[in-house]
Design brief:
With 198 residues, the chain is an alpha+beta fold. The protein has helices spanning 7-14, 21-28, 85-90, 111-120, 122-148, 151-161, 163-168, 171-178, 182-197, and strands spanning 32-36, 41-43, 51-57, 60-66, 69-76, 81-82, 97-100, 104-110. It folds into two domains: 7-147, Jelly Rolls; 149-198.
Length: 198
């Protein structure tokens, strides 16, 4: 059991930087906790985009509306940050929706408090840079995957590398993430099951 609701976040940060107890206390005192029910939104398109959220519990999907159709961009689970990060940094309204797929708990950090931490805690600047690099690589990899790999290849990779996604996320959102219709995903799954038996 965690010492408190902020322990998972401190453990996550400590994988990237060393932070003293006093530096951590500066960080912790500006954090807030929020509970979000399944189906509710952490962020909606067009809303002020003032927070980054560390997911303590539950999972979210990030999606955009393109020509009246929902396009799933990412899934976010425990131990990850949920944010429309580029618009958060540029102080623009959200361009994505972040919806809870399960009952969730998040730890929030406001943009203004993040800037204050940059000024007061040198280690926090390093962490911010590393997170920006991590997210850039993540987004770039996603773009390459959609460009160079078939939906079936991506589904097979999910089976191998991230089976928890398939266990916890409804099929229609997985299909959207793969860029196909749910019926196409059903055909892929049936074909793979036949091949496995066979």
């Amino acid at each position: 059991m965690y010492a408190d609701e902020f322990t998972p976040l401190r453990d996550f940060i400590s994988r990237f930087i060393d932070m003293t107890d006093s530096e951590w206390r500066l960080h912790q005192q500006v954090l807030s906790r929020r509970l979000i029910k399944k189906g509710e939104y952490l962020l909606r398109t067009g809303q002020p985009n003032n927070y980054v959220a560390f997911v303590n519990k539950g999972c979210f999907r990030s999606y955009s509306i393109v020509r009246d159709q929902e396009i799933t961009n990412f899934f976010i689970f425990e131990g990850e940050y949920a944010a429309d990060y580029d618009n958060f940094l540029t102080r623009q309204p959200a361009a994505e929706n972040l919806q809870a797929l399960e009952d969730a708990e998040v730890i929030l950090l406001h943009y203004d408090d993040m800037q204050t931490l940059y000024e007061k805690v040198p280690a926090w600047q390093k962490f911010g840079r590393l997170m920006a690099e991590y997210l850039f690589i993540h987004v770039s990899q996603r773009a390459r995957d959609l460009q160079y790999h078939s939906p079936e290849d991506l589904y097979l990779r999910m089976l191998k590398e991230t089976p928890h996604v398939l266990e916890r996320v409804p099929q229609q959102y997985i299909a959207s993430f793969l860029g196909i219709q749910p019926e196409s995903l059903s055909r892929i799954r049936k074909r793979l099951m036949v091949e496995k038996r066979g």
